[in-house]
Amino acid sequence: MTRGRIELGAITPHNIKQLKRLNSVVFPVSYNDKFYKDVLDVGELAKLCYFNDIVVGAVCCRIDTTEDGSRRLYIMTLGCLAPYRRLGIGTVMLKHVLDYCAKDGNVNNIYLHVQINNESAIEFYKKFDFEIIETKEHYYKRIEPADAHVLQKTLQTKGVRNGIHSKDGDTGVKI
Known about the structure:
alpha+beta
């Protein structure tokens, strides 16, 4: 397959069924109606990805706030149909997420769960400086292996956070 035009588009009530169908093909787990209802409310954090005007991928994220008040971005799903992999589609979607975090300036890290045997996904995220920080046993229900790695990319937030500067003195988000 040759290079084509890759574009991101909003997820709306009119195309949410395309996201449901895509997720049912790409992921070994199913997502409930609440997931799709929440996706409609996150704006820039949920996008369909088009290759030459055909929906071939999607990314869906949310912002979590920790007990200490810091903000983390959780990638709930980021996936692409198998025939369209290795064409830069995942990179476009992940760069959209990284750009969102850079513009926001107050996201401490990005994290996600990856099934432990999904080596291609693990390698993909490692190219963007994600690290395996934990392995959760029995994370998934009804699929094998049931264990998941937690991958995380630490970001630097704008300004000084809790009176602490980064080691190199830079306070901008690095992507």
